[in-house]
Amino acid sequence: MRISLICKRFYTNKDLIKDRFGRLYHLPRQWVTQGAEVWVNAIDYRNDNCDELTVEGIHFQTTPATLANILPLPYSLYRHCQRVKPDIILASGDSHIGFMALLIAKKLNVPFVFDVYDYYPALKGNRIPGMKTMFRYAVQRADLVLCASEPLMNRLASLNDNRLLVENGVDTSLFAPLEMSQARKALRLGQENIFIGYFGSINEARGPLLIKACRMLRKDYPALHLLLAGKLDGVDVNEPWIRYLGELPQRDIPMLINACNVVTIPYADTPFNRMCGACKSAEYLACGKPVVATNVSVHPMVFTDAPSSVCSPTSESMAESIHQQLTVGKCLAFPRHLAWTVIGHNLY
Fold first, then answer.
1. Where are the beta strands (DSSP E) in the chain?
2. Long-range contact list for 270-273, CB < 8 A, 24+ apart?
3. Phi, psi at residue 158, to the nearest 5°?
4. What is the band of 48 on the pLDDT scale with cuts at 50, 70, 90?
5. Cα-atom radius of gyration of the chain, to the nearest Å?
6. 127, 159, 189, 289: least buried by Cβ within 10 Å?
């Protein structure tokens, strides 16, 4: 089978090619191991270069979409698919990408699959007139819609009956348990401190309630420190007990997770967060760490057998759950179905 995937090169603050990150890398990788020929056309909004390279059997081409290149973008994508002659076209990353890929698939008379890993209409870029219409059109006319979470599946039910749950998984060769003292030694962190971790986008909807919760907990745990890494947007982290490490490559995250006493998913109850299927829960569980997550999206289902892992999206509730996890340290076994090897095999 010849598969063409049209997507973004940079998504969730990671580089698809250099970081080898997430579903847009690992699904094609698994398809290649099962005998498929996979071409990924990665739309690049940051660079003017048009690069071609092969990584682990996946054929990548980057197509620039800067201001100088934006007008010929649809034709460039069409010409690439025309050369590849795919049996199926997939699109992922945003509403307009799905719309363009749908038109290309119809022109080439091949099936179209739309991968919706976030609720794209809630993204800032979808405020542009016409974007939401393109999203609905692409979802309605797709031969199959892949959804990263159950809430997304339910949200899109009225638009397309042909939906399939494909959760965000984890690379178990990278994310694995490591003795906490070893991780701290490697990171030069104090062995005597308590570290609460969060590694992902830090913004108004993802982070402040954790900072407030940890500030409360420091009254009873003066050795408690907050360990953060990820893109910072409008959140003040300038406190001596907060260690912010900036944006780090994916390969560095497992060490940070393993250095923590408790790791968290501090999502506020927003329309976007309700639809998301975060990679972090699978990454945390693969490292065998106690987790605290707010009860938005699929978190209550993921942590059904660990009620102390779930809290209301308030700083008070999160502080209480972190306290419980520091006391009990309840860890769930890693669900094997969340390994990319299993997800990719089942989808193919």
1. 2-8, 10-11, 14-15, 37-44, 52-55, 58-64, 88-92, 112-116, 144-147, 163-165, 194-199, 224-229, 242-244, 262-265, 291-294, 310-311
2. 270/205, 270/296, 271/119, 271/122, 272/118, 272/119, 272/122, 272/123, 272/205, 273/205, 273/206, 273/297
3. -75, -15
4. confident
5. 21
6. 127
Cα–Cα distance, 224 to 192 (Å, whole number): 10
In sign, the C-alpha dihedral spanning 25, 252, 343, 117 is negative
> pLDDT, tens digit, for every residue of 164-202?
999 999 999 999 999 999 999 999 999 999 999 999 999
Q: How far is it, in rounded angstroms, from Cα 289 to Cα 258?
A: 7
Hey, what are 16's tokens?
């698809």
Q: How does pLDDT run across 276-300, given as a tens digit for each residue?
A: 877 889 999 999 999 999 999 888 8
Q: Among 121, 93, 124, which residue's Cα sits nearest to residue 275?
A: 121
Are 294 and 318 in contact, with CB atoms under 8 Å apart?
yes
Reply yes or no on whether the pLDDT at 80 is more than 80: yes
114-165 pLDDT tens trace? 999 999 998 888 888 999 999 999 999 999 999 999 999 999 999 999 999 9
The one-character DSSP state at 118 is: S
Query: Which residue shows structure tokens 């460039």?
Result: 76
* 142's tokens: 């797709």
Q: Are strands 37-44 and 58-64 parallel, antiparallel or unpaired?
A: parallel
Three-class DSSP category at 92: strand
Structure pTM? 0.90
How far apart CA 148 and CA 255 sit, in angstroms, is 26
Tokens 């520091």 correspond to 326
Which token pair is 318? 């999160």
Contacts of 73 (CB under 8 A, 6+ apart): 43, 63, 65, 100
Residue 255 corresponds to which tokens in the numbers above? 């060490």
